[in-house]
Give the backbone structure.
Amino acid sequence: MQDAHETAATTPDRILRGLLNILSLVALLYIFLAAIAMFGVAFKLMGKEVSENLIATTSHPVLGLMIGLLATSLIQSSSSTTSIVVGMVSGGVLTVTNAIPIIMGANMGTTVTNTLVAMTTINRRTEFQRAFAGATMHDFFNLMSIMILFPLEMGTHFLQKGATWLSGQLVGAQGAEFPNPVKDAVKPTVSAIQDLLTGPVGLHQGAAAVIMLVLALAALFFALTSLSRLLKKLVLNQAEGVFTRTLCNNNFAAMLMGLAVTIAVQSSSITTSLLVPLIGAGIIPLESGFAATLGANVGTTVTALLASLTGTPAAVTVALVHLMFNLSGILIIYPVPWIRRIPLNLARGLAAATARRRYFALVYMIGVFFLLPLVFVLVDKMIRGS
């Protein structure tokens, strides 16, 4: 009888918590979408000259690739980088052509989180070796994808052409063939902020644009961080047992699980950061973790697709390029066993060398994710300045 009373007493609490969680999810999603829309408006307020300067900075594809890598390594979120890029394209600051290398670089930069997670086991040599292989297999996969698809895209623009066609089928050439309730929902909030800054507050358009950019960045990071934390609590804690069993049983199922969990928690970093310690502990094999990581790679593109709903057809095109890039990499690398083994073998080899000289993990992380792109950016600035 006491148990029945306790259950009856806790049921209203569970219902209330469930409703609060749903309201929190809706509110955070609205803040995220409003932040993306605010990016577009802010960049338009900045004027043509700022747009031209930024486009000139990223006009070299390799530099754009490095900027995407560095930016994502610094903020440790490809979702944030790609969402910002979508907002910039929507605001007319970036062209689709210039945005594509940044998106590719962002895909590589997000894997720095895995390396950080692997380094938590650095004092346990065997576990660290397995975990470091689990972290860097993602690096080598993304590097292979870029080495294959980057020159192919620069030569043929197949991703841009395919995404442009698909965007035209989804939203039309002008983006007005179908109603966009998402854009309609966030437009009043963004317009109210713009009117407040340029009206009663009396700011110049440039100053208003800077404040809107700061607000948009703060709102974006707050929304993505809070969404990931809330969804992790709601989804991963309940699904972890199923997640682990699925990973061990079937690689295709593991890929689908990586996709589903990443869509649910809106962060590939959370999914892959969960995989690294599981691989390090020997709970799941490297091959299964690799399949789940590729699923997470596709799942993370949903954030950019959501962000593009508040923008222009060009913004939708960029989001679709992100999706097509990840799918193309998987279709080229994963189906053929000997090609699929390349990133795994490279990761195992690097992990074995790093386990012998563990300081190399820090050298690798700083060198690849921060120094390399920074050197490219600084050299480009020196060349332009001379």
